Amino acid sequence: MSEVTLKVEGMSCGGCVRNVTGVLTALPGVESAEVSLDQASATVRFDPATIEVSALRHAIEEAGFDSPA
Ligand code: 9UX
Hints:
- The protein is α+β, with helices and mostly antiparallel strands and about 70 residues long.
- Helix content is about 30%, strand content about 30%.
- It has helices at about 15-25, 55-60; strands at about 1-5, 30-35, 40-45.
- The two termini are about 20 Å apart.
């Protein structure tokens, strides 16, 4: 497993946190996601053989948030 912390911009309430958490943990290869409203971040544990960091960021953006590098 690898771990990465991504920026997540645009979250404004706990519902956003749940949505981002759900989107990330639904992805194949993602073991867990710890999303912080205060830190505007998501720390994701994932299997790099199954999914790339770019796909994690893409999923965040598809959910309506920004994940700048
Ligand atoms: Mo809160 Mo976020 O009412 O997508 S759920 S702003």
